[in-house]
C-alpha cells in the first residue's frame, strides 16, 4: 500500500539542553536520517522543522504557528503528499526500521491508525500509520492546533497497536540511548 511519511523534527530538544536532537548521531547516522532511511519507500516525505542536510531528498515545512507543538506540525505536514495513508513519526525513533514501517502500513486494516507500542507498552501516536482522511478530520475537529496534545488529537480515532517493540522506543533524554 502506498504511503506518505510525515516526520516531526521541529522540537526544542529542551531535555537535551537545546542540542538539535534530530542531528544526534547513533551508529554513524543522525536520528533524523535513521527515520528517513526507515521510510524511504514513501511516495513522498515531508519533514516538519528547520531544513537540514539529510541522507535523501525530502520536502520541508514548518508548523504554523512556529513552535506550536506536534499537532501544529502534523497539520502543516498533512498539507503535503496525497497518499491515502500517512505514517507520522517523530525524528527520535532510532531503532525504527523499514520492516517496522511496512508492518504499520500493512496492519492498518479497516482502522484509522496502526501504531507502535514502546517496550513499556505505551502506544506511540508519533509512530503510527494513519488514514489521511481520519487524521485530517481529527485536525479539523481540534481547531487551532497550537499547543494541543497529540493524545487529544487522536482520542476519537479507531487505533490499534503493535506488541511492545524496541522500534517504538523514542529518545527523550541522554539516558534513553543506554537502554
Automatic annotation (TrEMBL):
<dbReference type="InterPro" id="IPR013482">
    <property type="entry name" value="Molybde_CF_guanTrfase"/>
</dbReference>
<keyword id="KW-0963">Cytoplasm</keyword>
<keyword id="KW-0501">Molybdenum cofactor biosynthesis</keyword>
<protein>
    <submittedName>
        <fullName>Molybdenum cofactor guanylyltransferase</fullName>
    </submittedName>
</protein>
<keyword id="KW-0460">Magnesium</keyword>
<dbReference type="InterPro" id="IPR029044">
    <property type="entry name" value="Nucleotide-diphossugar_trans"/>
</dbReference>
<dbReference type="GO" id="GO:0046872">
    <property type="term" value="F:metal ion binding"/>
</dbReference>
<keyword id="KW-0808">Transferase</keyword>
<dbReference type="GO" id="GO:0005525">
    <property type="term" value="F:GTP binding"/>
</dbReference>
<dbReference type="GO" id="GO:0006777">
    <property type="term" value="P:Mo-molybdopterin cofactor biosynthetic process"/>
</dbReference>
<dbReference type="GO" id="GO:0016779">
    <property type="term" value="F:nucleotidyltransferase activity"/>
</dbReference>
<keyword id="KW-0547">Nucleotide-binding</keyword>
<keyword id="KW-0479">Metal-binding</keyword>
<feature type="domain" description="MobA-like NTP transferase">
    <location>
        <begin position="5"/>
        <end position="157"/>
    </location>
</feature>
<dbReference type="InterPro" id="IPR025877">
    <property type="entry name" value="MobA-like_NTP_Trfase"/>
</dbReference>
<keyword id="KW-0548">Nucleotidyltransferase</keyword>
<keyword id="KW-0342">GTP-binding</keyword>
<dbReference type="Pfam" id="PF12804">
    <property type="entry name" value="NTP_transf_3"/>
</dbReference>
Amino acid at each position: 500500500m502506498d504511503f506518505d511519511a510525515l516526520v516531526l523534527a521541529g522540537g526544542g530538544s529542551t531535555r537535551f539542553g537545546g542540542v538539535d536532537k534530530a542531528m544526534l548521531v547513533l551508529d554513524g547516522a543522525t536520528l533524523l536520517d535513521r527515520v528517513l532511511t526507515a521510510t524511504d519507500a514513501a511516495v513522498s516525505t515531508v519533514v516538519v522543522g528547520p531544513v537540514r542536510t539529510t541522507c535523501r531528498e525530502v520536502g520541508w515545512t514548518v508548523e504554523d504557528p512556529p513552535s506550536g507543538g506536534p499537532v501544529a506540525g502534523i497539520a502543516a505536514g498533512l498539507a503535503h503528499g496525497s497518499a491515502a495513508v500517512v505514517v507520522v513519526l517523530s525524528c527520535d525513533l532510532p531503532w525504527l526500521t523499514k520492516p517496522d514501517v511496512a508492518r504499520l502500513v500493512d496492519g492498518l486494516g479497516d482502522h484509522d491508525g496502526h501504531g507502535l507500542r514502546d517496550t513499556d507498552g505505551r502506544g506511540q501516536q508519533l509512530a503510527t500509520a494513519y488514514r489521511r482522511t481520519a487524521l485530517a478530520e481529527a485536525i479539523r475537529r481540534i481547531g487551532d492546533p497550537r499547543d494541543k496534545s497529540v493524545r487529544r488529537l487522536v482520542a476519537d480515532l479507531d487505533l490499534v497497536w503493535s506488541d511492545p517493540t524496541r522500534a517504538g522506543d523514542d529518545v527523550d533524554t541522554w539516558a534513553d540511548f543506554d537502554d
